[in-house]
């Protein structure tokens, strides 16, 4: 057997302008980064609050390593569950207003683990068609009857929920949609789900830290209870600036995951030093309201500027502000033209987004300045009028 087949598939990807390449970052995350030997002003990280390189978070990581070491050493159920993990779980439970929280090593694993612990072949899973890949993969893996409803459309969900009986019905949605930036209509989605005896699971990877008065995400933004959203997922690698993820919910939910979530049971615990670092970032998320206020100002400034330039934005009130381009090749051209002007924004293409909806996924951070947003707008003006590269 040869690898010719694989090489042909790679070549086809290249022909379609869908080939992906990694860039090597030589600096910490921040508005200015060093990539492949050059300095750029970056607008594509998920470090929305500017905590990934915060001195207090770094100090906590060092202190955590001094106390607990670097490696988790074992799974949580053997002897890898440290005091740092335990304290972080308790603090996140208080933060989210849920009875308990369970840490996972990544958001991808939290989603695979939670969905598969809750439903199986006898169940049905209902997903927004623009949900994150990890949610879709988790649903398929479960073997449950799998249905997608129209994007952020409670009526479309209600139609699907009212059909044949399943033992358990799990409705799954992003809280903030990762590639579009819009917020799920959770009050209506939860109403429809409860009326049909389902459970609503919300993956708020992009809402935690950014939405709600204390940064507790879209459930705080809408004032929703544990009964409205019984399964709440947060990730720690975005607004929190560290890494890992958690599920928040009732005592029964968390005990179920400890017993049945395979991606919790059969994997090494996250680094306890990272758990300590995350405790520091949680304090900053809650206390430093100015980070959310600053983001709101930058979002408004950017949207206003883009409208004046005639760019098509999406209906997003969050730090995810994609500029819709459409064609993958054109998205690549604009990304390259911006790069030539010292601005780093990667083009997002299929299969991450639907065919024909390639975009520049601009993300803003509380660490950006107004002047930096203005520099982005100036560059967008030049590349649009063809003065590119
Ligand atoms: C990033 C993301 C994940 C995955 O989280 P990781 O911790 O990076 O694995 C899951 N869900 C959504 C909506 C995401 O945007």
Automatic annotation (TrEMBL):
CDD domains: KBL_like. Its EC number is 2.3.1.47. InterPro entries: Aminotrans_II_pyridoxalP_BS (IPR001917), Aminotransferase_I/II_large (IPR004839), AON_synthase_class-II (IPR050087), AONS_Archaea/Proteobacteria (IPR004723), AONS_Proteobacteria (IPR022834), PyrdxlP-dep_Trfase (IPR015424), PyrdxlP-dep_Trfase_major (IPR015421), PyrdxlP-dep_Trfase_small (IPR015422). Pyridoxal 5'-phosphate binds at residues 107-108, 178, 206, 235. It comes from the Bacteria. Transmembrane segments: none annotated. The keyword Transferase applies. The modification N6-(pyridoxal phosphate)lysine is found at residue 238. Substrate binds at residues 20, 132, 352. Residues 40-380 form the Aminotransferase class I/classII large domain. Pathway: Cofactor biosynthesis; biotin biosynthesis. Its cofactor is pyridoxal 5'-phosphate. Keywords: Biotin biosynthesis, Pyridoxal phosphate, Transferase. One of its GO terms (molecular function) is pyridoxal phosphate binding. GO terms for biological process: biotin biosynthetic process. It catalyses: 6-carboxyhexanoyl-[ACP] + L-alanine + H(+) = (8S)-8-amino-7-oxononanoate + holo-[ACP] + CO2. It is an enzyme of class 2 (transferase). Homodimer. PANTHER family: 8-AMINO-7-OXONONANOATE SYNTHASE (PTHR13693:SF100), CLASS II AMINOTRANSFERASE/8-AMINO-7-OXONONANOATE SYNTHASE (PTHR13693). HAMAP family: BioF_aminotrans_2 (MF_01693). Catalyzes the decarboxylative condensation of pimeloyl-[acyl-carrier protein] and L-alanine to produce 8-amino-7-oxononanoate (AON), [acyl-carrier protein], and carbon dioxide. Belongs to the class-II pyridoxal-phosphate-dependent aminotransferase family. BioF subfamily. This is 8-amino-7-oxononanoate synthase.
């Amino acid at each position: 057997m040869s690898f010719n087949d694989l090489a042909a598939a790679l070549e086809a990807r290249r022909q379609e302008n869908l080939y992906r390449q990694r860039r090597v970052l030589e600096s910490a995350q921040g508005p200015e980064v060093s990539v492949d030997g050059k300095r750029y002003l970056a607008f594509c990280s998920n470090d929305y609050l500017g905590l990934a390189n915060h001195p207090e978070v770094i100090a906590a990581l060092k202190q955590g390593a001094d106390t607990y070491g670097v490696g988790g050493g074992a799974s949580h159920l053997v002897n890898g569950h440290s005091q740092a993990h335990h304290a972080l779980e308790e603090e996140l439970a208080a933060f989210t207003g849920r009875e308990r929280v369970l840490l996972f090593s990544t958001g991808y694993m939290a989603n695979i683990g939670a969905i598969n612990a809750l439903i199986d072949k006898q169940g049905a899973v209902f997903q927004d068609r623009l949900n994150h890949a990890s949610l879709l993969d988790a649903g398929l893996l479960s073997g449950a009857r799998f249905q997608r409803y129209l994007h952020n459309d409670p009526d479309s969900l209600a139609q699907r929920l009212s059909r044949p009986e399943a033992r358990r019905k799990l409705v799954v949605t992003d809280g903030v949609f990762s590639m579009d930036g819009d917020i799920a209509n959770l009050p209506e989605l939860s109403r429809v789900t409860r009326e049909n005896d389902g459970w609503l699971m919300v993956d708020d990877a992009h809402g935690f830290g950014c939405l709600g008065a204390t940064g507790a995400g879209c459930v705080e933004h809408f004032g929703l209870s544990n009964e409205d959203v019984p399964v709440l997922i947060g990730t720690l690698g975005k607004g929190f600036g560290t890494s890992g993820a958690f599920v928040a919910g009732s005592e029964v939910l968390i005990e179920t995951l400890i017993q049945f979530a395979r991606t919790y049971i059969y994997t090494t615990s996250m680094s306890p030093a990272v758990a300590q670092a995350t405790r520091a970032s949680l304090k900053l998320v809650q206390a430093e309201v100015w980070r959310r206020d600053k983001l709101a100002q930058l979002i408004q400034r950017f949207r206003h500027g883009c409208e004046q330039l005639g760019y098509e934005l999406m209906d997003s009130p969050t730090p995810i502000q994609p500029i819709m381009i459409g064609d993958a090749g054109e998205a690549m051209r604009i990304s390259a033209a911006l790069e030539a002007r010292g601005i780093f924004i990667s083009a997002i293409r299929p299969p991450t987004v639907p065919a024909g909806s390639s975009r520049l996924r601009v993300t803003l951070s509380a660490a950006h300045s107004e002047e930096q947003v203005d520099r982005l707008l100036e560059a967008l003006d030049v590349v649009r009028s063809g003065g590119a590269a």
